[in-house]
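A reminder from the course coordinator: this example appears on the midterm review sheet, so study it carefully.

Given structure:
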């Protein structure tokens, strides 16, 4: 039985769902994988909870937090005012799970957490895109220096196994390209416009009512979320060193119901496609609405589902679709990365 002490940074929706899954499935994971995943510390805005080798009762902690109480007041484990960086240094954890909101300006606290974990020779499992999109070279150099592993599939389309398929299932093949539907919100909107005849505004309102889209959906509908994911996929799988400035980005806000109807009449389907071509040392990255033939493997991806297609030299073209677009799906991807890191 391998014991893996864990610190979780960020107790928003994804962080709390991760703690719940970790707690509820700990015994199953012990039995199936011979792994004892122990929550030793958790950090949020106002402080931390830490309980050393004994670990924290994750479900009790969630009851405390979900009742409106801050993490730092969780019984004898609570430590008011403790920063994530300090908690990482004191936690004794082997792995840091990063679940704070993505910051694409300067990386925010997520950057500080990732660098602190690597300095303390911890592996990193992250749903946060910011540190890896903005500081890819620096993060990987520090991880290599300290012998740490980085697991970021939760940041690259969450429950859709984009990186797992590319790195594991297609190992030994040369990857020529990747193209995918990497954002569930935009795919829901475009699907509703085509299938239900909704206008863009009506489809967006429906997505917001269902909780698929945020009240401010700009990050999704402008194509930036998809751009972040294709940067991570290209850098991880193709060995490029791209940033957001290397991506040609356009969103779906200008797509009209007339565009959808014209495409349908011509047996085409409009999807927001993120693509990366593996050429030279930089590749070519783009995000934008694309008219696909109805028999294209990505054309049949409906609702909030996502998908990715890889073109290879020896394994042909492979498409994977599905994956839950939700906080639970992202949390499950974190747990999957964590398990696979140690089995």
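Designed residues:
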């Amino acid at each position: 039985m391998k014991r893996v002490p864990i610190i979780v940074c960020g107790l928003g929706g994804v962080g709390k769902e991760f703690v719940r899954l970790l707690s509820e499935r700990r015994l199953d994971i012990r039995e199936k994988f011979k792994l004892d995943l122990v929550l030793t510390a958790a950090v949020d805005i106002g402080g931390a909870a830490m309980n050393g080798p004994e670990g924290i009762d994750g479900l009790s902690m969630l009851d405390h937090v979900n009742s409106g109480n801050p993490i730092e007041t969780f019984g004898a484990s609570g430590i008011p005012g403790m920063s994530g960086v300090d908690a990482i240094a004191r936690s004794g954890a082997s792995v840091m799970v990063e679940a704070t909101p993505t910051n694409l300006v300067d990386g925010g606290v997520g950057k500080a957490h990732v660098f602190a974990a690597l300095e303390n020779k911890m592996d990193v499992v992250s749903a946060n895109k910011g540190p890896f999109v903005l500081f890819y070279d620096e993060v990987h150099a520090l991880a290599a220096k300290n012998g740490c592993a980085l697991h970021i599939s939760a940041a690259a389309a969450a429950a859709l196994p984009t990186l797992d398929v590319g790195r594991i299932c297609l190992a030994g093949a040369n990857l020529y390209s990747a193209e995918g539907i990497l954002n569930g919100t935009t795919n829901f909107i475009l699907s509703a416009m085509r299938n239900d005849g909704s206008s863009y505004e009506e489809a967006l309102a429906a997505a917001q009512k269902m909780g698929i889209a945020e009240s401010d959906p700009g990050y999704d509908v402008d194509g930036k979320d998809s751009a972040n994911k294709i940067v991570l996929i290209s850098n991880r799988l193709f060995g490029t060193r791209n940033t957001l400035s290397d991506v040609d980005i356009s969103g779906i806000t200008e797509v009209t119901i007339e565009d959808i109807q014209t495409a349908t009449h011509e047996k085409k389907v409009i999807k927001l496609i993120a693509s990366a071509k593996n050429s030279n040392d930089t590749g070519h990255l783009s995000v934008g609405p694309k008219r696909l033939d109805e028999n294209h493997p990505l054309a049949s991806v409906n609702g909030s589902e996502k998908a990715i297609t890889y073109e290879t030299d020896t394994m042909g073209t492979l498409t994977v679709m599905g994956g839950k677009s939700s906080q639970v799906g992202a949390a499950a991807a974190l747990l999957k990365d964590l398990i696979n890191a140690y089995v």
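The first strand starts at residue 2 and ends at 9. The chain has a mean pLDDT of 94.
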